[in-house]
Amino acid sequence: MKESHIALALPEFGNDCSFEVGWFTNSRSPLLIFIDDQRKWLKDWMTKGGVDVVVTNNKATYELLRLDPILKYKRLFYVEALERLQDIILEIYEDSSRKRAIDGYGEM
Predict the structure, then answer these.
(1) Mean pLDDT across the chain, nearest whole number?
(2) What is the predicted pLDDT for the residue at 65?
(3) How many Cα atoms within 13 Å fall on the side-chain side of residue 8?
(4) How far apart are the first and last CA of the chain?
(5) What is the C-alpha to C-alpha distance for residues 54 and 72, in angstroms, rounded to an integer?
(6) pLDDT of residue 101
(7) What is the pLDDT of residues 42-77, one digit of tens each?
(8) Concatenated DSSP letters of 46-68
(9) Helices (H), strands (E): how many in the chain?
């Protein structure tokens, strides 16, 4: 985890994942979650609080994320084609690299 540049989580996971989410919250590496219709994890506020980005290919899930009291303040993406996921991961990685350089932490 210390050497990672970005974290990608795929639900279903529960509170048992909150340690890793918390670790990434304290790191400078963003945490991205990709979901379709897996929504059980949305009940775990500890996990949601540490997430930086959520990507979904499910329109109903996207609308639910936009109304979530915690996640609505995160970066949310709806993609119609799964091929777009790699573009978003690259965009998040590049944004994080620029922020680290600006903050004086150097390259990732």
Answers:
(1) 88
(2) 97
(3) 11
(4) 13
(5) 10
(6) 78
(7) 888 888 888 999 999 999 999 999 999 999 999 999
(8) HHHHH--EEEES-HHHHHHHHH-
(9) 4, 4
**Locus of tokens 């990685």:** 93
d(CA 66, CA 68): 6
- Asked if the peptide bond before residue 107 counts as cis, ω within 30 degrees of 0, the response is no
* Residues 32/54, Cβ–Cβ less than 8 Å: yes
> What gap in Å lies between CA 92 and CA 106, rounded to an integer?
17
Q: How confident is the model at residue 32 (pLDDT cuts 50, 70, 90)?
A: very high
CA dist 93 and 8 (Å) reads: 11
Single-letter amino acid, residue 10: L
Cα 10 from Cα 82, distance rounded (Å) = 14
Task: Provide the b/e sequence for 61-84 (b: ≥16 CB within 10 Å).
Answer: bbeebeeeeebeebbbbbbeeeee
Segments making up each domain of the chain, as ranges: 7-102
Asked if 13 contacts 47 with a C-beta cutoff of 8 angstroms, the reply is: yes
